[in-house]
Amino acid sequence: MVNLLEFQGKEMFRKYNIPVPNGRLLKSENEIKKLDDPSVLKVQVPTGHRGKSGGISIVKTLTEACKALENMQKMSFDGFSPKGFLLEDMVKHTSEIYISISLDRGRRSPVLIASSRGGVDIENVPKGKIVTFNLNQLIGIPNYVKRQLLKDLGLKETLSGELYSLIDRLWSLYKNEDAELVEINPLAVTENGLIALDSKISIDDDSLFRHKELSPDLGTDPLEIKAKKEGIAFVRLDGDIGLIANGAGLTMATIDQIALLGGKAGDFLDLGGTDDPAKVAKAIELVAESNPKTVLINVFGGVTKADTVANGIVLAVKAIKPRFKIFVRLNGFNAEKGKKLLTANGIKAFSEMGEAVSAVVLASKKV
Amino acid sequence: MSVLLDKNTKVIVQGITGHQGEFHTKAMLELGTKIVAGVTPGKGGTIISGIKVYDDVKTAVDFTGANASVVFVPAPFTRDAVLEAIDAGIKLLVIITEHVPSHDMIDLLLYARMNGATIIGPNCPGIAVPGIGKLGIIPNSVLKKGRIGIISRSGTLTYEIVNSVSVAGLGESTVIGMGGDKVPGTDFVDALKLFKDDGDTDAIILVGEIGGGAEEEAATFVKWNIKKPVVGFIAGIYAPSGKRMGHAGAIISGNTGTAESKINAFKSAGIEVAKNPDEVAVLLKRKIKR
């Protein structure tokens, strides 16, 4: 998923005519120059709970604003450094609402969730204070749902027009932008109407071919970024056994087996379907960069043939001359062919997953 | 009788002229699958592995009476390809393509239901009925005719388990590889409903993984509706929270979607859970004997 930062989300809100406070994006305190009214300074990071961690500050003077920004610039939020700062007008309001449209995996359909108790994590709102409407992707949001929502949120009839059009705009955004979540929390209720004080939008990364202006979220780990650029599914873990397997399920199951036998995998690397030995070699080089004590390659041949993997292993061993020992398990399509090739190159290959995992766990403890 | 696929299933391959489409068409034919046509817009008239290619699905269906399709079309064009197939009267669609947008899948799922069609996938190995054929990419070498129904969210892990079931001498009635996406066309409960009254299936294997709540729902369904022995396996016990483990759907968010929750749900529904893929066949053999 591509998680938009608050200011990106608010830009999107503007595009859909969802009201947001006046504000500007800053990179440093030098850009502030002047401050006419008390404002809110908010750090832009891809993580929540900014209020609690000192990432949101109410500033009354220019000096205060500069100081607050300087402070935040030095801070880290869940490991993320600031990607900018949003300086916004304060919005006087009487109450705060929560409203979102998201993809409900269980129902394989969208769901609208709202609460009159906005401004806090929806997880912390009592169940009785949350209203949920199951939606149909092809129908959208019926008027009766909007009327019900006005009542449930305790809003005055004078706000009905504003609420109804806001809901329609949220729905358009959800549909047109391939959103998996579009959330306003809080949505401020003011004398002049409804204003989105925050934004949280997640876009399906498989839809980016029709949203060229967005770029995929690569994360922060340099090795994970490198893998993503190579088109390899890789997640760094905290163990010392480097792991390569084919298929996400088999890779996860191998991590579990390693742990159940007392070892610890250092990564999740799913080779996926490939008939290119060079891609296999690249995967081994990638795992080598995470400094494993030993490496396990667990392959069940199918779309990815076992001998393709064997070829890739031989390539990689010649290229990087690894200091760690590689344990290989080949089974399935062309396994015998692959094993012969490995044996000829002095690499032993197991047939059974259990044997290979036991061997690699044992070896990792000896190193 | 088998599930979804039988000897009357006539299959078209959408995207047959691509690398994957061509390769797997050959394998499907080798297993005896009745492939009657291929479809690739602009490539009509071509012959692939002896199969005639048409420009559009409607013409292919008119000439051949096809009622099922395997889709290898690239993700940006999958939505349109599937809509075209449903409009042409195709009732069973297996989408192999990876990275189909979630919103496209929600649309397609609703449209399929409106038209009485079933979708398997996307990003899936597809289905296989040993002795009849297969729609998808499950390797022929692991399959063996038998009486075990297998439902899985994984690809390779499914092959691994199918293989161990075959090697154990049991064999499969139908294998359904649903894929690991967030919005699968068919989920565990949909598939369980098919196996429930299938006279050719004596026992069922559920292969799940972290993310979402489909295994928990499956457990509830099994508890109240399935009398046949059911054995399970869950991958991702040691997967970290908040990280996508390869599959789009394999992610623990907060406290939901953990392996622990799924294993507990299985156990409380009387589904024995194997500790490793090989143990699945062992547990199953023991259960059937009882």
Give a short synopsis of this structure.
The complex is a heterodimer of chains A (about 375) and B (about 290). With about 375 residues, chain A is of the alpha+beta class.
Output the keywords.
heterodimer; A: 367 residues; alpha+beta; Dna Ligase, domain 1; D-amino Acid Aminotransferase, Chain A, domain 1; Rossmann fold; 3 domains; seven-stranded antiparallel sheet; four-stranded antiparallel sheet; 34% helix; 25% strand; B: 290 residues; alpha/beta; 2 domains; seven-stranded mixed sheet; 9 helices
Structure description:
The complex is a heterodimer of chains A (367) and B (290). By secondary structure, chain A is of the alpha+beta class. Chain A has three domains: 23-89, ATP-grasp fold, A domain (Dna Ligase, domain 1), CATH 3.30.1490; 95-210, ATP-grasp fold, B domain (D-amino Acid Aminotransferase, Chain A, domain 1); 222-366, Succinyl-CoA synthetase domains (Rossmann fold, 3-Layer(aba) Sandwich). Helices cover 34% and strands 25% of the residues of chain A. In chain A, helix 8 links the parallel strand 15 (294-301) and strand 16. In chain A, helix 3 (143-152) crosses helix 4. Chain A is elongated and about 80 Å long. The model of chain A has no long low-confidence stretch (mean pLDDT 95). Chain B has helices at residues 19-30, 57-64, 75-87, 102-114, 156-167, 188-196, 214-225, 259-268, 279-289; strands at residues 11-14, 35-39, 47-48, 51-54, 68-71, 92-95, 118-120, 126-129, 133-136, 145-152, 172-177, 203-209, 230-235, 272-273. In chain B, helix 3 (75-87) packs parallel to helix 4 (102-114) and helix 7 packs parallel to helix 8 (259-268). Chain B has 290 residues and is an alpha/beta fold. Chain B has two domains: 11-120, Rossmann fold (3-Layer(aba) Sandwich); 138-289, Succinyl-CoA synthetase domains (Rossmann fold), CATH 3.40.50. Chain B has a seven-stranded mixed beta sheet, with helices on both faces. The mean pLDDT of chain B is 96. In chain B, strand 8 (126-129) and strand 9 (133-136) form a beta hairpin. The interface between A and B is large, with 51 and 61 residues.
